[in-house]
Amino acid sequence: MKILMRADTHYSIVVRDSEYEKPKYTFSQVLAAVAVSMGSMIVGFSSAYTSPALVTMENSTYISVSEEQASWVGGLMPLAALVGGVIGGPLVDYIGRRRTILFTAIPFFIGWILIATAKIVHLVLAGRAICGLCVGIGSLAFPVYLGETIQPEVRGTLGLFPTAIGNIGILICYVAGKYLDWSQLAYLGSSLPIPFLILMFMIPETPRWYISRGRTEEARKALQWLRGPNTKIDNEIRDIALSDAEIGKESSVAELFSLKYMKSIFICLGLMAFQQLSGINAVIFYTVKIFKMSGSSIDENLSTIIVGLVNFISTFIATALIDRAGRKMLLYISSVTMTVTLIVLGTFFYVRDTLNMEVSTLGWIPLTSVMIYLLGFSLAFGPIPWLMMGEILPAKIRGAAASICTAFNWLCTFTVTKTFHNILVGIGPSGTFWLFGSICFIGLFFVVVCVPETRGKSLEQIENKMTGRKATRTRRMSSIANIKPLPCGC
């Protein structure tokens, strides 16, 4: 049997060849990804709720909603998610990734019940605020949990599960919204946290969080569960401990904004900005209005269901490709696709409104453009910014930096959602979609110049590349001393 030696001035480590075998792709990792992603289903349902619900809410005799209040029903959720993003960072660091995710289930249920039973619009707004708070916390915690638990070889595929299952939530909302009013739809939303809560009780905390708290045995048990009972985990648990020892235990605010960490934070913020300024949430929140505005001959609710179906299918295409094609290639395709379709959509409205040309026979263009736009978005710019947030943020600042990036994402979401109507009035539909298309085009150059490829790399390899960090011998030695060897003496 081949013996590998690793030595420096003071110590050497002898390991067997078999320890370097890649861990198996286990059912446990799939279960963990599905459990966390059930929270994303609630996020998707919450994001899509206003599109079908506002139509029935504004025409309801049961509750009175003005146009301004309706805009707040749509805009308050991302605003509350901004606050959730801010408090989510400290929560994932202090109480753990799993517990933070778990604790969102009950407030989600309460928020939806408030909306479902509301007789005045203020209770609807309160429910949207509670759900939004949980959305912000969850959207931060989901990628951090998955980034720390899934092996590099399939981190791209399983890391896209939250987006894929989140799109199922959007599709469920769109299909149900064709048949249910705003209150009944909210009751449906209140049922989603139940399977989410059950599944979250079945999975462990991340090994990295346990190691950061000095709970090595619990870390080993969690990692063994994730990798499978027959997988050798000594090298991986040792690498996690080495990484934890090198970064130290505490990070200051000044350190968060130090030069070596700013590159990672800047890339995450850039990806989040281009994700939201592409206009995606304006399209998702106001899909029905867009089709009404276009004068499309296709039923608005049917168009919305088709859009949700495309959004759902396209994420699974991304899931199949991301660990083969890589993150950057998919981002290139996504940017170009969104740019072209938004320009076509803007041109349709320009021809109809400014040139006053007859476009009744071209009613298929808005639906086709939005479908292809969503296909491009869901292929990369939808899921990859969240996936890469869990990958490229250094461990020492991961909670705090993820908090900043998540809050920034929801600030952009709120800004686009709340101002979409005003932008439409100010520069017209054609100018609005051309504006979003121009931003997508600029995003292409940002990806080319700034975004690294992370396919197949461990979190330690990515962090070393992003920060230029080199291991220190003293910390390596003390860390190895704290790792209990297997009985065989490996």
Features:
disordered N terminus, 490 residues, mainly alpha, 2 strands, disordered C terminus, single chain, two-stranded antiparallel sheet
Description:
The chain is mainly α and 490 residues long. 76% of the residues lie in helices and 2% in strands. The protein is built from 24 helices and 2 strands. Strands 1-2 form a two-stranded antiparallel ribbon. It is globular and about 70 Å long.
Concise summary:
The protein is mainly alpha-helical. The protein has helices at residues 27-48, 50-58, 67-94, 97-102, 105-117, 121-149, 152-159, 161-177, 182-191, 193-200, 207-212, 216-227, 234-247, 253-256, 259-277, 280-285, 287-294, 300-325, 327-353, 364-381, 384-392, 398-450, 459-467, 473-481, and strands at 3-7, 12-16.
Strand tally, please? 2
User: Tell me, what's the shape?
Assistant: globular
- Work out the helicity level: over 70%
Question: Span between N and C termini?
Answer: 14 Å
